[in-house]
Amino acid sequence: MIGERFAPLFPPDFVVVDAPPEPGLERLWPEERGAVEGAVVARQAEYATARWLCREAMRRLGVEARAVPSSSERMPCWPQGLVGSIAHTRGLCVAVLGRASRWAAVGIDVEPDEPVNETLHARLCRADEQPSVTLWGEEPAARGRAVRLLFCIKEAFYKCQYPCTRTFLGFQDARVAVHLDGRFELELLRDAGPWRAGRRLAGRWSRQEGYLAAGIALARSEEGSP
Predict the structure, then answer these.
(1) What is the pTM of this model?
(2) Fold category of 7-103 in CATH
(3) What is the DSSP annotation of the chain?
């Protein structure tokens, strides 16, 4: 069954679909199969389900179904006229697609709603993100879940920015502020391609049905802003 649980993270002209991963390489188009030939069954299931969801999203957008192969950098190669993002985690795959005429890029990430090991907190979060780390309280489990959310938000942002900057960023390269009402703001702290340090973006997050999710979209009109 195809779900739409993460659609509220994005403007209404995006299509957002999700489904549990299922084996089935026959759902892949020939130009997609090389990326997972020889991969473990779980990876093949995630990859095949994600591409199947992409084509379902294309259908809902009213465009012809096309392949979504992987680049040499293991990034999805979106068909001309479309922007998109893919995420998968334990038990779930998600795809979001929009029209490139209006949107320059989009990013989504989904993570299990579980605490991150405390030994990873300093690697994933900046010291000045502590207000967001205590979003749900000071208890270790609550802090660990908030760190997972920060990780999720940064992953969504990195997916969104890469098509515009062609720059790989680290977890210390952006500062996130999370709000309990489902909003977040993010500030880029280093230059990335044409983007300058200090650039700010905003998006939405959710916590539901055992998952944390974050989404961010960049309008075509904002693409060239430094």
Answers:
(1) 0.95
(2) Ribosomal Protein L22; Chain A (3.90.470)
(3) --B-TTGGGS-TTSEEEEE-----GGGS-HHHHTTTTT--HHHHHHHHHHHHHHHHHHHHHT-------B-TTS-B-PPTTEEEEEEEETTEEEEEEEETTTEEEEEEEEEES-PPPGGGHHHHS-GGGHHHHTTT-SSHHHHHHHHHHHHHHHHHHHHHHHHHH-----TTSEEEEE-TTSEEEEEE-S-BTTBPTT-EEEEEEEEETTEEEEEEEEEGGGTT--
Q: Which pLDDT score, from 0 to 100, does residue 225 have?
A: 60
Sorted by where each begins, the domain ranges of the chain are 7-103, 111-205
pLDDT digits (tens, 9 = 90+) for 88-105: 999 999 999 999 999 999
Q: For the chain, which ranges sit under pLDDT 70?
A: 224-226
